[in-house]
Specification:
The protein is α+β, with helices and mostly antiparallel strands. 26% of the residues lie in helices and 29% in strands.
């Protein structure tokens, strides 16, 4: 699952380690020519939003804000506020380039001090169909839904699929990486989004979160010329595989930063068993990933802290009492290293239980920035548990992003990259006119 971090952290993480000296010699010239050609402007691409007439199935509902009681909205064009449950119920607002407070007052959503007509409203800016929410620019429209407590609301970005991807690919992968790696990322991200939308979207008011819980989405701030080129050149392309019932359909194209030398079977991490989600060797990420991400330093947690975090997230573990022992109950052995896939927890009451290693990792470190993967050794030192010999970054299932860049540097195409990390998959066109 795509648990990538934001783009500024990615750029620091993915700095190539083998070209530093050459870069130091030429960077003054690069800065001069970049400033000369680009006029020192940012890399935002604020062109009119494409695909606004796309069919509903090719739109994505992104949860931007959850259970908030206020936010700030601004647009560069007039917009309409419509009751999402009634037709022909629209109000035009011409307050352009003016920050408007959106809040809840007396159980109603208010926009710029004016009460909305419903507990579900859609804010639709005119062309270029861009709005600014809490300082970040997004394409498409904004839906506000009052929660059942009548004291908070959710903010959901309704955006066409391809513009959505332009805000994802640049957040999940540095925009200056090889074009074929960016194209592979675009196809994987498009497939993953549609799979999550299809499987879970019907049961809730949104399809995906904007965070690494699904895949990071930064809106226009994630866009660049290179990113749009990768999205456009792969427009409508998705990955499919043979399903358990014999049909052909999309599957969850998980990906993560750095596999450490071998990707992992999805069945051991997420519990699903699609044919392309099997572990494959990867010799490509080592020369791309930052050294501190390929090999990461020891991480330690107090025994009491581990118990508190586990019991808070998994109340069913309370019969164990205090956690007194943690051991690897399942491992994938790749010769040079092993990845822990399951941990056994022993409690002070004498009872024990098991957790998937990835669930344990993210319980201990929800950010994933310290305990970077489950490729490590678990050692107890006094009242602390230490995770040693760490290697890789992320869950390790599906495409290794640093590996994709490494393959692209060796002149592999996006198709070859995807075939390597999702063996047995097939690339097909999504749109009917393809």
């Amino acid at each position: 699952m795509p648990f990538a971090i934001f783009n500024n952290q990615y750029q620091a993480k993915y700095q190539p380690v083998c070209r530093f000296r050459t870069f130091c010699k030429i960077w003054p010239l690069l800065i001069f020519f970049t400033a000369f050609l680009c006029g020192c402007k940012s890399r935002k691409v604020a062109t009119p939003t494409p695909q606004m007439d796309a069919e509903t199935e090719y739109w994505v509902r992104v949860l931007l804000l959850n259970d908030v009681n206020a936010c700030t909205l601004k647009t560069t064009a007039a917009f309409t506020v419509a009751d999402s449950q009634k037709q022909n119920s629209k109000t035009r607002i011409d307050r352009v380039n003016v920050p408007l407070e959106v809040s809840v007052s007396a159980g109603e959503i208010t926009i710029g001090g004016e009460s909305a007509t419903s507990d579900q409203v859609i804010i639709s800016p005119n062309e270029p169909h861009i709005f600014n929410l809490n300082g970040a620019d997004y394409r498409g429209s904004l839906k506000l839904i009052l929660n059942s407590d009548a004291n908070s609301f959710d903010a959901i970005n309704h955006v066409p699929l391809e513009p959505y991807l332009a805000g994802v690919v640049g957040a999940e992968m540095p925009h200056y990486w090889e074009p074929e790696a960016l194209k592979a990322q675009a196809i994987a991200s498009r497939t993953y989004c549609l799979y999550i939308k299809k499987r879970f979207g019907q049961r809730r008011n949104w399809d995906v979160r904007r965070t690494q819980a699904h895949q990071v989405y930064q809106g226009i701030n994630g866009e660049s010329v290179q990113i749009w080129r990768a999205v456009n050149q792969t427009e409508g392309r998705v990955l499919t595989c043979i399903q358990p019932d014999g049909s052909e359909d999309i599957f969850p194209t998980y990906y993560s930063s750095t596999c450490g030398g071998h990707t992992e079977n999805s069945s051991d991490v997420f519990g699903d068993s699609f044919e392309p989600l099997v572990g494959v060797p990867c010799s490509y990420c080592r020369d791309v990933a930052r050294q501190s991400c390929f090999f990461w330093p020891a991480v330690q947690f107090d025994q009491s802290n581990i118990t508190d975090k586990l019991l808070q997230r998994y109340p069913n573990l309370k019969p164990l009492g205090q956690i007194t022992n943690i051991s690897a109950a399942g491992q994938s052995n790749y010769g040079e290293f092993t990845r822990v896939t399951k941990v056994k927890l022993l409690g002070s009451t004498g009872k024990s239980d098991f957790l998937k290693a990835e669930d344990f990792r993210l319980t201990m470190d929800p950010t994933g920035l310290k305990l970077k993967s489950t490729i490590c050794q678990i050692v107890k030192e006094g009242d602390k548990w230490v995770f040693l010999s760490g290697r890789g970054y992320g869950h390790g299932v599906g495409m290794c992003q640093c590996g994709a860049e490494g393959m692209a540097r060796q002149n592999k195409t996006a198709e070859q990259i995807l075939a390597h990390y999702y063996p047995g998959s097939k690339i097909v066109g999504l749109y009917r006119n393809e």
